[in-house]
């Protein structure tokens, strides 16, 4: 499995994380793990879950810092996304982030079917 994976946050979520030192979203808290995406999954994750955002914060956690609590798992059976996703079963700390980017919404959007093909 890929050692390169990413966490996407809204600017507000990043601001909160920066203040408390822990990166967590409402979805992560509800599901009991930190949702992450591989580089192949990023485009679809951005399109499907962040379509209403003009800007997002993209974080790359340090693999060595989180590898012991990381699992690659299938999505829910009813989900159209079929690749295994990295899930972190621990707190993700700001100090465990190795790279950060601020991404502004681009001018082009690929069709969903092409985004899904990228994951396979």
Write up this protein:
- The chain has 120 residues and is an alpha+beta fold.
- It has one domain: Protein of unknown function DUF952 (ADP-ribosylation fold).
- It has helices at residues 11-20, 26-31, 39-49, 63-66, 112-118, and strands spanning 5-9, 22-23, 34-35, 37-38, 55-61, 70-73, 85-88, 92-93, 97-104.
- α3 (39-49) runs antiparallel to α5.
Question: How would you summarize this macromolecular structure in one to three sentences?
Answer:
The protein is an alpha+beta fold. It has helices at residues 11-20, 26-31, 39-49, 63-66, 112-118, and strands at 5-9, 22-23, 34-35, 37-38, 55-61, 70-73, 85-88, 92-93, 97-104.
Topology (elements, then pairings):
Blueprint: E1 5-9, H1 11-20, E2 22-23, H2 26-31, E3 34-35, E4 37-38, H3 39-49, E5 55-61, H4 63-66, E6 70-73, E7 85-88, E8 92-93, E9 97-104, H5 112-118
Helix pairs in contact: 3-5
């Amino acid at each position: 499995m890929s050692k390169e994976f990413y966490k996407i946050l809204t600017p507000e979520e990043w601001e909160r994380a920066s203040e408390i030192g822990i990166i967590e979203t409402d979805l992560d808290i509800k599901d009991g793990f930190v949702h992450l995406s591989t580089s192949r999954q990023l485009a679809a994750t951005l399109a499907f879950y962040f379509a209403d955002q003009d800007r997002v914060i993209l974080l790359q956690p340090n693999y060595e810092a989180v590898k012991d609590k990381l699992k690659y798992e299938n999505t829910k059976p009813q989900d159209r996304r079929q690749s295994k996703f990295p899930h972190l079963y621990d707190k993700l700390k700001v100090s465990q982030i190795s790279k950060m980017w601020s991404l502004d919404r681009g001018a082009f959007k690929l069709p969903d079917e092409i985004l899904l093909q990228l994951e396979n």
